[in-house]
Design goal:
Layout: E1 17-23, H1 29-41, E2 45-50, E3 55-60, H2 65-76, E4 81-86, E5 105-108, E6 111-113, E7 119-123, H3 130-142, E8 147-149, H4 167-180, E9 184-187, H5 194-200, E10 203-206, H6 214-221, E11 227-230, H7 237-249, E12 255-259, H8 277-284, E13 289-291, H9 293-297, H10 303-313, E14 317-321, H11 339-355
Parallel strand pairs: 7-8, 7-14, 8-9, 9-10, 10-11, 11-12, 12-13, 13-14
Antiparallel strand pairs: 1-3, 1-4, 2-3, 5-6
Length: about 350
């Protein structure tokens, strides 16, 4: 059973979430109240979240384990209770225990992230012009990519590097979407820009440098729009998940986690792409997991190998930089694939996906 349809607002303020109680379809208000009353007997608060097919109750309070086990047994005995899920991790809403079957995120009629389909996001690091973006969009669509990426606001290490076209870049992205029918993803850096970016984008990207920008995470949590959250440059798995927790706690459950490489002592690649985190995240969280082999390596020669390895490791999708003329790119040319390289890679990815029972 998937709970990904649920709107989960700030349900856990003022206490530690102890368990999730999933009720069977067709439960009555009287039956719901019976669970609430039982929780009150043990000084648990209750928050009721109503989905289209299920009612879920979050039990709020701090109890010793033996008390928690007792109340779980008593509530499980109600015939209208489908399951009682203990939440044992310090990160609650992203925990696998909350949704063992995994969250699925609907982007468009034919794109759902987190199911059998592996979704490929491709495009330039930065939007440079309408002509550039239209050329790329037409090409990536023709070879099977489903979502167009492109930066309008660019966080750059050097203040002298190209910083993006800003709102004009967002407008170009939107026009491209209208022309080619590709959903778009773009990065937001500043909470003051969030409303504007959300107006144009189908998916909001939080970059590695902003993974622990908690003010931004809280604001993004108020949106009803998918968010791709990239792992910070030196973030642990737990830090990564806590950042996602901020977004879910605000009410936005449509979060995609993205591994994009971490900083190590490596001297041959821009970052170290930590593909071992893919199965680890799959084990600990219900959220979909993507991999960015472009930033993860910083070198176009290594991108295809790491992209294929990411799919084999269980990633739900990839985000890859593609440019018709990388040598002329205003941002991240050395890690961008040419059209011919990307077309070849897409063919190889489809074969790997088929071999593990998935599809692109």
């Amino acid at each position: 059973m998937s709970l990904s349809f649920l709107f989960i607002p700030n349900i856990f303020e003022g206490g530690e979430i102890g368990m999730i109680i999933v009720l069977k379809p067709g439960v009555s208000e009287e039956e719901i109240q019976k669970v609430v009353d039982k929780l009150k007997e043990y000084d648990y608060g209750a928050h009721i979240s109503r989905g289209e097919n299920r009612v879920v109750i979050g039990a709020i309070g701090e109890k010793r384990m033996e008390e928690k086990i007792l109340i779980m047994e008593q509530i499980s005995s109600f015939p209208f209770v489908e399951s009682v899920i203990p939440i044992l991790t310090s990160y609650k809403l992203v925990s696998k225990e909350l949704n063992p079957q995994g969250t699925k995120i609907r982007i468009s009629e034919d794109i759902e992230i987190g199911n059998k389909q592996i979704v490929i996001i491709a495009g330039p690091c930065a939007v440079e012009s309408k002509e550039q973006l239209w050329e790329i969009a037409g090409f990536i669509k023709s070879v099977g990519a489903k979502i167009l990426r492109g930066g309008a606001f660019k966080p750059r290490t050097s203040p002298y590097s190209f910083q993006g076209l800003g709102v004009e870049g967002l407008k170009i992205l939107y026009e491209t979407k209208q022309e080619f029918g590709l959903p778009i993803i773009t990065e937001v850096m500043d909470p003051r820009d969030l409303e504007t970016v959300a107006e144009y984008a189908d998916i909001i990207q939080i970059g590695a440098r902003n993974m622990q920008n908690f003010t931004l995470l809280k604001e993004v949590g108020k949106l009803r729009k998918p968010v791709l959250l990239k792992r910070g440059l030196s973030a642990t798995l737990e830090e990564f998940l806590f950042s996602a927790e901020y977004i879910l706690l605000g009410g936005n459950s449509e979060v995609i986690l993205c591994e994009r490489g971490i900083r190590t002592f490596s001297d041959f690649s821009r970052n170290t792409l930590d593909l071992s985190i893919v199965p680890a995240l799959k084990e600990k969280t219900h959220l979909p997991v993507f991999v960015d082999p472009s930033h993860g390596t910083g070198n176009y020669r290594y991108v295809p190998s790491m992209a294929k390895a990411a799919i084999a490791a269980g990633a739900d999708g990839l985000i890859i930089e593609v440019h018709p003329h990388p040598e002329k790119a205003l941002s991240d040319g050395p890690q961008s694939l040419t059209f011919s390289d990307f077309k070849r890679l897409m063919g190889e990815l489809k074969n790997i996906a088929a071999a593990i029972g998935r599809e692109i």
